[in-house]
Amino acid sequence: MKKKSEIKRKTLETDIVLNLILNNVDKSIINTGMPFFDHMLGAMARHGRFFLDLNCKGDYEIDGHHSVEDIGICLGKAFKDAIGSGAGIKRFGDAIIPMDDALTMVAIDFSGRSYFSYIGPRLDGYINGYSEELTQEFLRSFATNAAMNIHVIVLYGENRHHIQESIFKALGVSLSKACSGDPLLGDSVPSTKGIIV
Fold this sequence. Notes:
By secondary structure, the protein is of the alpha+beta class.
């Protein structure tokens, strides 16, 4: 496992520079242009035991969609690059995380195949200008570009901030588990195929 990755992506809509270091608890440096999204990514990184140095300049005069989706693309590519062949990692991760009134379950698999599923309340409100539906766009683009499965089930919750935070924290804990080393595997890949595709 490489453990580090740098991704740069510039389009007519966004300009993103992202550095990722797995198995690192240094405080992340995150500037997406959306304070609430910064907070969510910071929580995910902290509980995911990875360092994220992320700067995004986006077309916020339109809305946050392009920035959130493109950050998902870049973060997915960074994880895929940092994990490499997947040799020695546990591959699967899951977590059930409470955030006061909210409870969320996340399960992931670095399978080499992308899939995203969300079950829970409609995420259609706004938190400090952040459109809640963008969380699903982020998760979908993250799963696609990391070539992984992400399943999210919000079991219950009332407070919109708590629901969102429980999703990102549960994803972080799941990532920490999946990316951690398995001493029994050594340098072998956790797949009956011998490769992750």
